[in-house]
Amino acid sequence: MAKPVLVPYRNPKKVKAYLDAAAIAGIEFLAADVAQPIVFDGSGGLLLTGGTDVNPKLYGAVPQPETDEPDDERDQAEVELLAKALERDLPILAICRGMQLLNVFDGGDLVQHLGSARHDVESEDKGQAAHPVAIERESLLSSIAGTGEWQVNSRHHQAIHNQGSHLKVTARDPADGTIEALERPDRGFVLGVQWHPEDQLVHAPEQLKLFLRFGAAIQGNSRALPLTHARG
């Protein structure tokens, strides 16, 4: 039996779409509030979600005026969880902020403000496609998508600048080169995407493939250990 995937969060309202997508894909999950102590004895996997900007001090930069106020509590909690998940080679799906944190953890850095309406789309329909992404051949993402291009939504004002040393860029916006996906080839399943597939399932049901493959990776991970979540 597969172990539950851990989903740390700050805002319970904003995490709902991720949990709904996981449930549709048949993934057992355990949502964990970062404001409470999280005891990570192992799990089936780790799902990192969107949210406020990663503190620039984590990649040696000075905050720009457009950068959010830091959430050091969340940054610290998720960095610790990332370290443990990577050590155990547990499947990781990192979305938007999650991908940016994955990159920073691996020694990369970020563009603090793109200033691009193309990527920071204001729309009531969060699933609305904003632009295509070009997917690299012979990548994990390519094997999931089954195509070289996906239409994705977009609502981020920051982006990957230099990728971490263990990470491979596997998708970009073909118009401006913005990095849209990262993978870690030396691990079984580590995938980061800059868009929000959890919001696209109605308009673009093919985005469910990301969660389905994530779930399959969890099912196939024989090294998964029991997970406990302790609240203070």
What this model shows, in words?
This protein is α/β, with parallel strands linked by helices. The chain contains 5 helices and 11 strands, in the order E-H-E-E-H-E-H-E-E-H-E-E-E-E-E-H. The longest helix has 16 residues, at 72-87. The protein is globular. The chain starts with a strand and ends in a 13-residue tail after the last helix.
Record the SSE blueprint.
Elements lengths: L4 E5 L2 H13 L4 E5 L11 E4 L23 H16 L4 E4 L1 H9 L4 E2 L19 E5 L4 H6 L3 E4 L6 E2 L7 E5 L6 E5 L6 E4 L14 H12 L13
Parallel strand pairs: 1-2, 1-3, 3-4, 4-11
Antiparallel strand pairs: 5-8, 6-7, 6-9, 9-10, 10-11
List keywords for this structure.
232 residues; alpha/beta; nine-stranded mixed sheet; two-stranded antiparallel ribbon; disordered C terminus
Gist?
With 232 residues, this protein is of the alpha/beta class. The protein is built from 5 helices and 11 strands; from the N terminus they run E-H-E-E-H-E-H-E-E-H-E-E-E-E-E-H.
Shape: globular
Tell me the distance between the termini. Answer: 29 Å
Rg from Cα: 16 Å
Across the major sheet, the strand order is 2-1-3-4-11-10-9-6-7
